Amino acid sequence: MRKLLVLAAATLFLFTSCSKSKLEQLEREIALRDEQIAQLEEQVQHLQYSNSSLLDRMSDLSIVNKAGAESIQQSLQNINKQYDFIQDLTTKVQSKDSLNLALVMNLKRSLSDINDDDIKVEVRGGVVHVSISDQLLFESGSSQVTTEANEVLGKVAMVINDHDDLQVMVEGHTDDVPIQNSCVKDNWDLSVKRATSVVRILEQDHYVPSDRLLASGRSQYAPIADNDSSSGRSVNRRTEIVIMPRLDQFFKLLEAPVLRD
């Protein structure tokens, strides 16, 4: 009987020891699983945050791309406006050059019988200049236009009247030798009076409209030759008829297109 009790006690001990060992193993496995679950949950949270951040960035990028696309489109529109302006300006400049060439040819044809030393027709500074010597236009020191000069001015006026979209500026020029007499006070006075006399002839005798005429005096301050020699001073004593586009049309031509920011 005693042997049976001892055997039963031993069996119970082994069973209890075995169950305890398995329980501890199960607890360790559960703890490991819990740790793995915690790690997985942490990874899921990190992925969710990364995904949200990426979506935000993609949204920002979409806005930037949209704004960038609008900016590029606006820049292209501005470039097209500038290109059209340049093309238009080029066309108008070419048209003006063609008109200047036609004016020069017509003037030279009309004035072909005049001595080349007394009158010169050229394009300078983008406009047509008709330069007439003072010995052809005036008596020495006078602003009275000679009869011969009136005929010359009539030929110039015929060409001017054929182009009613052009403006005419008459400039008086002198050499640097001071002058003063009963009719003029100085070179300024003489240059202005000579320009005014030519303007009156063009207006009253040859019917160039008054609103197309300008008179100005440059005195000695726009020489085209050296005043140190008599021949140079003779060249500088001149009246120039400058034929040019109307100033309002000229400034309108230079207006750039309005560009948007």
Structure description:
- The protein has a domain at 93-252: 2-Layer Sandwich (60s Ribosomal Protein L30, Chain: A).
- It is built from 6 helices and 5 strands.
- It has helices spanning 2-110, 134-137, 147-161, 187-205, 230-236, 247-253, and strands at 119-124, 127-133, 166-173, 213-217, 238-245.
- The chain is rod-shaped and about 140 Å long.
- The termini are far apart.
SSE layout:
Elements: H1 2-110, E1 119-124, E2 127-133, H2 134-137, H3 147-161, E3 166-173, H4 187-205, E4 213-217, H5 230-236, E5 238-245, H6 247-253
Parallel strand pairs: 3-4
Antiparallel strand pairs: 1-2, 2-5, 3-5
Keywords:
261 residues; alpha+beta; 60s Ribosomal Protein L30, Chain: A; five-stranded mixed β-sheet; 6 helices
Concise summary:
By secondary structure, this protein is α+β, with helices and mostly antiparallel strands.
What share of residues is helical? Answer: 55-70%
Low-confidence stretches: none
Q: Distance between termini?
A: 111 Å
Please give the CATH class of one domain: Alpha Beta
